[in-house]
Predict the structure.
Amino acid sequence: SQQGEEDPQALSIQEGENATMNCSYKTSINNLQWYRQNSGRGLVHLILIRSNEREKHSGRLRVTLDTSKKSSSLLITASRAADTASYFCAPHHFYSGGYNKLIFGAGTRLAVHP
Amino acid sequence: DSGVTQTPKHLITATGQRVTLRCSPRSGDLSVYWYQQSLDQGLQFLIQYYNGEERAKGNILERFSAQQFPDLHSELNLSSLELGDSALYFCASSVELRSNEQFFGPGTRLTVL
């Protein structure tokens, strides 16, 4: 099973600043996904980047993937207080059995202060 | 709103008891997943069902069991509850067996006293 490890564990910034979170993993992947979790609530899918892609954008989110280094980064630009949440990466590999479990790391806890 | 519903929202019970958590996936989603999130263990995958059949197992205890019914809703049964079972239990769903994106429900917060 594939687990991503997010870094840093916690990040505290001011509104308007950029936030960068990193994810490392160990084996080959088909894609890597980022999820956000507001305190005590369900995870929300943010963005997916495929193994043959290097960069992807979605609104204020920018994700990069370096398969040679087995790492990904999530950049949130012009952060807002509403971005305060935990962020998880989920490296994803399609197993021959066809199952689809996601293994989450401990996440990065982002706090954006007004 | 992800379209995944979970009931109940909160559950408080005593050690040794048995509870059932219920999940209704998004309309059209065939695959259902259960996750447990606790402070010390983080977010752990428990089990996946696809169209009524168990397809993958994670860190699910023998005291726990799940099933997916013909109408595709799923139930997670937790028995002989222990204090350490206190956690948030999430259900997620996806369209296919190997869909990339999973849609999470709001969770059930279980407190075992």
Q: What stands out?
A: Chain B touches chain A at residues 2, 4, 31, 33, 42-43, 45, 48, 55-56, 58, 88, 90, 92, 94, 97-107, 109 (CB under 8 Å). Residues 32 and 93 of chain B are 4 Å apart (CA to CA). DSSP finds no helices and eleven strands in chain B.
